Amino acid sequence: MARARLFASLCGLVFFVNLARIVFAPLLDVFIGEFAIGEATAGLIVTLAWVGSASPRLPTGWLLTKVPRHYVVIGAGTILAVASGLAATATTVRHLMIGAFLMGIASGVYFVSANPLLSELYPTRIGRVMGIHGAASQLAAVIAAPFVALALLVDWRLSLWAIAVGAALVTAYAWYAASGTEMPAAGRDDRDFVAGALSEWRIIVTALAIVGAASFVWQGVFNFYELYMQSKGLSDRAAGTMLTVVFAAGVPAFFFGGDLADRLPKVPFLLGIVGAFSACLLALTAVDGLVVLVALSAVIGFVIHTLFPATDTYLLDTLPDSARGSAYAVFSSAWMLTQALGSSALGLFIERGYTYDAVFAVAALVLAATIAVLVALERAGRLPE
Prior knowledge:
By secondary structure, this protein is mainly alpha-helical. Helix content is 82%, strand content 0%. α4 packs parallel to α6, α5 (69-88) runs antiparallel to α6 and α10 (201-223) packs parallel to α15.
């Protein structure tokens, strides 16, 4: 029961952690108008949130060799509450960028500490637990656009203040739940950060090779998805609905993706997900019309969101107790840094005159070629399971 309460509190906290990263995407139009900036600068605000998410992951991995995981989780929630309040008071672009970066830092600290903790709390059901935890995170993405739309009836800053207050309350409950829970001993042997990470370098490199490019592309796609849908002739409201459809499809995707990751061979499953994503993205660039776009948005949202619990399950179920926190932190840092660059890269291409369809089509073809090479390596037995 004590572990269940802690798990529930973490599901609540991850909701606000992910909302803090996603909330900037539906605010891009507001930032462009209020601060008189271009698409590249707006994309940079989002990129800073994701760079912030990537930057503390290595230091957090080292910290986990010294401090119990649940202490670090509580610290992450505290940082999020303070950083969201800071961003809500922004009066300049620089101030807003600092707030976004710090909100990203909170998420990076959280995921590097919470995911290994959850895998050790429920070692026989890692995929299922990561899927439920991820679904809770994804709910934040689903409500992000309507949440921002509601806040805009008053002031866009209200959305950031709500995150600050919510994060503070849930963090307090997580601290209470953790104080009454007997923590697992699995991570106590993980005390040498560098040695732990180096000992599992093949697993880290394999995971990055499979999912790195896909997550880079996905960052650009979803952060500019509303503007992309507008370029296909949809109204502002319909474009916002499309983003909601993408994220809504991710809620069951996390659950089923984590469950399937427990049952299927992990590397072929990951390769299949990335291959399906590239095919769906290429198809999206070739179609128009509301009904078709709704259907493809739902499929893309489902496919890409199965990638995240499957990736975490592959890492956390494969890595040994003696290196889980250290190696996962290294992978997570590199993975998130790769993702973070996607939004600003796409904004740069769009400002230079390339169309969304052209950029996404090339990205899909590059992903397909990468997966073809990796499938050949997997069949030759060159990728570690």
